[in-house]
Design goal:
The protein is an alpha/beta fold. Helix content is 37%, strand content 9%. β1, α2 and β2 form a beta-alpha-beta unit. The longest helix is centred in the C-terminal third of the chain and has 23 residues. The radius of gyration is 19 Å and the shape is globular. The protein binds zinc ion. The site of zinc ion has 5 residues, from α2.
Length: 264
C-alpha cells in the first residue's frame, strides 16, 4: 500500500533495542485506521487507507525531529458494512475491529508505552475508535486519543452543499487523489448523488436530520457516490492536503504534550 509516512517515523522500521530506548511516558504512538471499500466508479477501494497514509505522512513531515512520535502500521480494513453489496468492499465486524484495536493497545501497554492515538480516515470506524479510546484508557490506563485525518481543518473552496452532504467518493476525496495519486482516479467515470440539499434539509435523513435512519449505501446511492466529484481539482487537492496536514501536525503535538488538564 502506498504511504507518505517518512521512514524515520515508522515504528515498524525500528528494532526492539531502539524501541526499548524510547522514553515510555513521552512517546506518542499513532495507529492510522482506514478502510477497503467501494468508492464509486472513479476511485480505488483503498481511498480511505491512502488518505490516512497521506495526511499522517504529510503531518509527520511538519513535526520537530526530536519529538518521539511514531506511526504504527495502518489498519487497512475497517468496519465498512454500510458498503456491503458492492464488489471489493472488505469489512471487519464491529467486534473484530474493536478486538484488533484492543489487542494492539494491550501490546503497547505490555511494552510500557503510555500514549496511543487513533488517526482515522473512515467514517464507519469513528464511533468504534471513540469506544476503544475510552476502553483502553479504562482497561490499561493508556492515554488515548482519537482524531480525524484532517483534524477538522477548514477546506477553502469547498461548496456549502459539498461540505454538508459530500460524504463519500466526493469532491474532497477525489481532489486528494488527483493531487497525490492521479493514476488511481478515473476522471471519465464520475457520478453524483446527494441525499438532501443544504437549503432544504429533510427531517428524516440518513445523516444530519432531526431523525436519522440507519442506512446502507445501496439504499441511497446506486453508484456508491455520496456527493459530487466533478468539481475536484488537483490544485485544490494540494491545498487541502496542506491545510489538513498543518492542523493534524498541531493536533499531534498537542497530544504529545498532553497532561491531565483537570487535576483535582
Ligand atoms: Zn472514503
Amino acid at each position: 500500500m502506498r504511504t507518505w509516512i517518512p521512514d524515520n517515523r515508522k515504528f515498524a522500521y525500528l528494532n526492539w533495542k531502539q524501541i526499548d530506548a524510547l522514553p515510555r511516558d513521552k512517546t506518542l504512538l499513532i495507529l492510522p485506521t482506514g478502510a477497503i471499500e467501494q468508492h464509486g466508479y472513479h476511485l480505488p477501494i483503498a481511498m480511505d487507507t491512502l488518505a490516512a497514509n497521506l495526511f499522517l505522512g504529510k503531518a509527520l513531515e511538519l513535526i520537530p525531529e526530536d519529538m518521539h512520535i511514531y506511526a504504527l502500521e495502518t489498519v487497512c480494513y475497517g468496519k465498512s458494512n454500510e458498503h456491503i453489496g458492492f464488489p471489493g468492499t472488505i469489512s471487519m465486524s464491529a467486534t473484530t475491529y474493536m478486538s484488533v484495536l484492543r489487542d494492539i493497545g494491550a501490546s503497547i501497554h505490555a511494552a510500557g508505552f503510555k500514549k496511543l492515538l487513533f488517526f482515522n480516515c473512515h467514517g464507519g470506524n469513528a464511533a468504534l475508535n471513540d469506544v476503544m479510546a475510552r476502553d483502553l484508557r479504562a482497561e490499561f490506563g493508556l492515554r488515548t486519543f482519537h482524531m480525524g485525518g484532517s483534524a477538522g481543518a477548514k477546506m477553502e473552496g469547498l461548496s456549502p452543499q459539498e461540505q454538508k452532504y459530500g460524504f463519500h467518493a466526493n469532491e474532497f476525496e477525489t481532489a486528494l487523489l488527483l493531487a497525490a495519486t492521479p493514476d488511481l482516479v478515473d476522471t471519465t467515470a464520475y457520478t453524483s448523488n446527494y441525499i438532501a440539499h443544504v437549503d432544504q434539509p429533510s427531517i428524516l435523513s440518513p445523516e444530519g436530520g432531526a431523525v436519522n435512519f440507519a442506512w446502507l449505501t445501496r439504499d441511497i446511492a446506486a453508484s456508491g457516490v455520496l456527493g459530487d466529484p466533478s468539481a475536484a481539482t488537483a490544485e485544490n487537492g494540494h491545498k487541502w492536503i496542506a491545510a489538513g496536514a498543518a492542523k493534524a501536525a498541531e493536533a499531534l503535538q498537542a497530544a504529545y504534550h498532553y497532561e491531565n488538564l483537570y487535576k483535582p
